[in-house]
């Protein structure tokens, strides 16, 4: 159990287990699990999918899983008979206990476990506009693993977790998410640090893939349609990969789900690339900035384009007003608060219903990628993370870290 080989998607050749890139191709890598049949383990949260996670151990205190339930409220509003909702967030009444309230929690736990398994005491470096940083800070604080976060200054007020902060160094970056990534990349190349890898990280993708696994178990089959709001599209790739594994298992049907990926226009490079349209000018403000990634893994082998083609999928361009209305409709009909990003997915589902891309009786999975923050505030103690330094250039970050002002 827990056995796997990491292979290049382009030619299937094995590569060393902790690689993020193929030496020969511009291609994603993928875990090829020895178990072709999903056998649930008696572990908590996502760890019950241990056979299809690239780990050889678990972090029992982290790794809360997604939940899947059949919608009544929203389904009635949209006239759908078989609408299922995967909820990543905090909603204890339905059994959802993800501490930082987004599906980034699904990625952080297996990534931190894998970091442990490298055995070289590297410090993980993560650049994030918000949700990813919180998810990784939460797990690092639980396990005591050192972590360095690069977060745009504007996102600093959103940096909270639900446990006492651990060995986490928070570097605020003057500028946007793109500037944070650029500075993080400089630091990652120094000895002793490792990049988290984004879409290239198989632990991230297979952690997110548990959304599809949980849904397939609940439904007894692979859904016909999968809706998600995307920035990088990693969750879409993950859903496709999980569905391929389920197909091979044999018990969940022989068709892939159609991917319906939603972006927030005008900051929507995946949408414009898929539609072969000239992109509009980007705006500084958007409905949810976690959905803006300027360099999504679109054309790379095994990336978003391949996932869309393989599943006969589509991409939706949703404007702020549509997303805000859809978010309200969801909150009123399902009675839980959600983040702005999944509002974009709900708007795409509405469009798909209106245009006949999904039919009344189709089996649909809507991924609500984050929610329950208001609900969590009622129950949980939130600890805010304070920046250790705010930088505008990478040299300042490197100097600060070299001086060991943080934890070394
Ligand atoms: C990151 C994020 C997304 C987009 O995820 P992808 O990496 O593009 O799959 C959607 N919703 C929320 C809440 C997120 O945090």
Fold topology:
Elements: E1 4-8, E2 29-33, E3 67-70, H1 73-78, E4 82-87, E5 90-91, E6 96-97, H2 105-118, E7 123-127, H3 131-143, E8 147-152, E9 160-161, E10 168-173, H4 177-188, E11 193-195, H5 202-208, H6 210-219, E12 225-229, H7 234-249, E13 258-264, H8 269-274, H9 304-310, E14 314-318, H10 320-334, H11 340-354, E15 363-368, H12 373-379, E16 383-384, E17 389-391, H13 394-402
Parallel strand pairs: 4-15, 7-8, 7-11, 8-10, 10-17, 12-13, 12-15, 13-14
Antiparallel strand pairs: 1-2, 3-4, 5-6, 9-16
Helix pairs in contact: 2-3, 2-5, 5-7, 6-7, 7-9, 10-11
This protein binds pyridoxal-5'-phosphate (PLP).
Residues 102, 104, 131, 229-236, 290-291, 339, 341-342, 369-370 line the site of pyridoxal-5'-phosphate.
Provide keyphrases for this structure:
five-stranded parallel beta sheet; 18% strand; Rossmann fold; alpha/beta; 17 strands
How is this structure best described in words?
- The structure is a single chain.
- This protein has 408 residues and is an alpha/beta fold.
- The protein has a domain at 67-101 and 204-376: Rossmann fold (3-Layer(aba) Sandwich).
- The chain contains 13 helices and 17 strands.
- Helix 5 crosses helix 7 and helix 10 crosses helix 11 (340-354).
- The two termini are 36 Å apart.
- Pyridoxal-5'-phosphate (PLP) binds at residues 102, 104, 131, 229-236, 290-291, 339, 341-342, 369-370.
């Amino acid at each position: 159990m827990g056995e796997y080989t990491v292979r290049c998607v382009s030619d299937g050749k094995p590569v060393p287990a902790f690689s993020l890139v193929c030496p020969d191709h511009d291609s994603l890598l993928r875990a090829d699990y020895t178990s072709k049949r999903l056998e649930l383990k008696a572990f908590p949260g996502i760890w019950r999918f241990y056979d299809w996670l690239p780990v050889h151990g678990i972090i029992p205190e982290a790794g809360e899983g997604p939940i899947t339930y059949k919608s009544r409220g929203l389904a009635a509003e949209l006239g759908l008979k078989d609408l299922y909702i995967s909820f990543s967030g905090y909603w204890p009444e339905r059994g959802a206990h993800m501490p930082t309230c987004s599906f980034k929690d699904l990625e952080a736990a297996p990534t931190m476990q894998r970091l442990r398994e490298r055995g070289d005491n590297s410090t993980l470096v993560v650049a994030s506009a918000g949700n990813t940083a919180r998810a990784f800070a939460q797990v690092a604080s639980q396990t005591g693993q050192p972590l360095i976060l690069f977060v745009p200054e504007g996102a600093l007020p959103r940096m909270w977790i639900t446990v006492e902060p651990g060995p986490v160094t928070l570097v605020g970056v003057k500028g946007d998410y793109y500037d944070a990534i650029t500075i993080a990349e400089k630091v990652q190349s120094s000895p002793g640090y490792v990049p988290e890898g984004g879409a290239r990280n198989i632990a991230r993708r297979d952690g997110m893939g548990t959304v599809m696994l949980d849904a397939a178990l609940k439904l007894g089959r692979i859904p016909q349609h999968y809706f998600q709001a995307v920035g990088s599209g990693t969750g879409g790739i993950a859903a496709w990969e999980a569905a391929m594994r389920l197909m091979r298992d044999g018990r969940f049907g022989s068709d892939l789900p159609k991917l319906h990926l939603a972006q927030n226009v005008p900051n929507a490079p995946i949408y414009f690339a898929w539609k072969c349209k000239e992109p509009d000018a980007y705006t500084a403000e958007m409905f949810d900035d976690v959905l803006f990634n300027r360099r999504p893994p679109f054309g790379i082998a095994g990336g978003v384009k391949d996932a869309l083609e393989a599943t006969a999928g589509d991409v939706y361009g949703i404007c702020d007003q549509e997303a805000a209305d859809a978010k309200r409709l969801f909150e009123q009909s399902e009675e839980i608060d959600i983040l702005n990003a999944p509002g974009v997915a709900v708007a795409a589902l509405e469009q798909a219903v209106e245009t006949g891309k999904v039919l009344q009786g189709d089996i649909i999975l809507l991924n609500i990628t984050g929610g329950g923050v208001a609900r969590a505030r009622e129950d949980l103690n939130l600890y805010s993370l304070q920046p250790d330094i705010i930088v505008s250039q990478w040299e300042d970050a490197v100097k600060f870290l070299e001086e060991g002002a943080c934890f070394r």
